[in-house]
Here is the input.
Amino acid sequence: MKKRRLLLTACLACGLTLSACAGMSREQMEDWMEGMDGSQTPAAAESGRFNFDTRRVTLNSGYEMPIYGLGTYSLHGEECTGAVTAALENGVRLFDTAHAYGNEVEIGQAIRASGVPREEIFVITKLYPDQFADPEAAIDEALEKLDLGYIDMMLLHHPGDGDAEAYRAMERYAAEGKIRSLGLSNWYIEELEDFLPQISVPPALVQNEIHPYYQENDVIPYIQALGVVVQGWYPLGGRGHTAELLGDPVISQIAAAHGKSSAQVILRWNLQKGVVVIPGSSNPDHIRENTELFDFALTDEEMAQINALDRNEKHDWY
Ligand code: NAP
Here is the structure.
């Protein structure tokens, strides 16, 4: 595990493809990795660590990303622009969208209208598998719809036919500066083992379903050990599934002890596990509430109590 992380970090520093690295003998690899010691880029060496003062994390791409943001699945039209505007007014600078959400135009509009400097904002969008056959056209479409000059991060939404080709197209756009960081969504250990040797630029982020009832306790440390940041979708259980999670007696009791809401406790639990949160909301009060995560901390015992709620209960199929 440790070696794999070193390998990825070293690949970043020297620019070798992972498959080229994988072709080395064990001795060559060890010599080469020893030679790399001390010559890793500062960004690569720092990657993955959350800074709770700046509320940001440095990615293995060298770019910084906020550790909390707004998810925009199912938000459209004025509901979407209103949510993005409310989020920006409350200091949110990270937005998660996707071709499949059909709202990249609204996200771009609300950001441009806000007057917030572009460089403060971090937008993630995704290519859907039905776009993998012509990834260049799909990336151009996302650039055009968002109309923000560049895309901060692009993910492949799911594994699918042609995914490695699509990722390599994203690598080419990243080399041209049109996309800044690359990542994957709904990739687990087996999928990563299969996928990583086929690409040159390691993913900076993996976005998967994570909430107290579906914790991915095997997958998260595996991804983090690679120097790749983990981001959780459905942090509150997902639209239509939030009532049970927010009303969970253990979470409610911890929330009452801190004078916080259940949502805030769940989001803070994620942050303390090193998982970036992107709760979805169209309600300005909830949007503000979901930013107030830095004036309290969960104790080890409270973290353990929430960890014990895991029941491997996925709320969506992917
Ligand atoms: P979620 O964040 O788990 O839950 C959203 C629900 O929680 C909404 O019904 C929202 O209602 C409610 N809510 C938000 N904040 C609240 C608060 N403080 N108190 C009470 N209720 C609150 O589900 P999600 O939005 O579906 O998932 C989050 C994001 O992950 C998505 O928006 C999307 O960006 C991403 N995602 C990615 C994938 C993938 O395959 N990569 C899949 C699904 C989702 P209100 O609007 O009333 O606040």
